[in-house]
Amino acid sequence: AQSVTQPDxxxxxxxxxxxxxxxxxxxxxxxxxxxxxQSPGQGLQLLLKYFSGDTLVQGIKGxxxxxxxxxxxxxxxxxxxxxxxxxxxxxxxxxGSGGGADGLTFGKGTHLIIQP
Amino acid sequence: xxxxSQTPSNKVTEKGxxxxxxxxxxxxxTALYWxxxxxxxxxxxxxxxxxxxxADDSGLPNDRFxxxxxxxxxxxxxxxxxxxxxxxxxLCASSRGLxxxxxxxxxxGTRLTVL
Lengths: 116, 115
What we know:
Chain A is an all-beta fold. Chain A is built from no helices and twelve strands. Chain B has strands at about 5, 10-15, 20-25, 30-35, 45-50, 55, 65-70, 75-80, 90-95, 105, 110-115.
């Protein structure tokens, strides 16, 4: 079965500073990988996804993520954060060609706090 | 266009009662998913429908939980004999096709509180 670890429960970043949120996954085959953002009172919104091909993927709102198979990681980055980026961020893995449960498996999330 | 909608947005019930939570997916989406999100946790997969049939119900915690999608569109999650531990936000998502290959669009959720 697949699993996702987000080692940082909370991260505090100053506005304008760069951001990296960590995500490690466990899956026996090539996974489908996702980053979602959840703001208070809002539904989950997809930031970006990796299925295959180029390991550096670009998403919405200036976010990018890099798939590193050797490290089983899919870290999310942004060069300069804005106060509106404060939210909960979830990494998720979906079964790729190897099968497995049909839903997404989410990490526990990282709460991003932006300091002025 | 309209996104995934869920009703009610909040539901308060007493221990032992029966509840139904409704999900209206995006029009044309054949796949529908239910997740449960407890406080401080990520969403946890419950069940996946492809069309009218439950293709994967491996995430349902026990037989008190049941879901239907009789016409391949709207789905209802049913919880019998509710327990305080069932309190959570229940999320519904839909997608165009095969799991994993297509983006899942999430609804705002139903917050269930069992007293």
